[in-house]
Design brief:
11 helices; alpha/beta
Length: 262
Amino acid sequence: MKRDAIFYQIFKRFPSLFFTLLDQAPEQARGYRFESVEVKETTFRIDGVFLPPDNATPKTVFFCEVQFQKDEDLYYRFFSESLLYLYRNRSLYDDWFGVVIFPSRTLEPENTTIHRSLLNGSQVQRIYLDELGDTVPHSVGIDLMRLTIVPEAQMAERARQLIDRVQQEDLGILSRDEIIDVITTIVVYKFTNLSREEVEAMLGKSLEESKVYQEIKEEGREEILAVTVPLLLKTGMTIEQIAQQTNIDIEVIRRVVQQPSS
């Protein structure tokens, strides 16, 4: 299950959910946008950055790392990339804050001595999803993020319960359909061995219009085109003729043709 990718998808769609995890959220939390940013004159990209709105005062940038596997180099990478980004963009921000999300403490690096002043300071917060607890009522956003660590045997029931809750509660600015779509995506990634019909039966809802199912269909279609388009070109057909005959957008055909062969 690509849990880090799921979290970044959640934050991309609902940046405000990130701030439900923090004790002190900025006043302009709803105006933040979640982006992947490139550090100039380097060769790396930071996947999880919450950029403040233009009218924010102060302009605080939030760096987020979702870590679902053991990595002893995590803090070396996280702090060096974050601070280098701040150095390259020092005129854009007034402050920064770092958040590292773990499923549990067991995945945190063993030796944190070198980074102790940062980790124990007020600018960094570590969040352990399994310590958010089951007994205390949570927002839908918190429960959505906790769904990623639910054991497989409990996943179907918990997902259905969350879908029922989403359909009944007032979610404010959050989109009910998009929240349900994210729940569906988590379940699909969790049960990759199940068919669409089996997942539909598990959730009690159709996947036909869900974003994850549309993405799967698109991936499958491009895999088929990667095989068929070169064969059609060899018969003498042009890209324009292939697009016309298959009723597929010509730009899609061109993209397939331009892809390097494996």
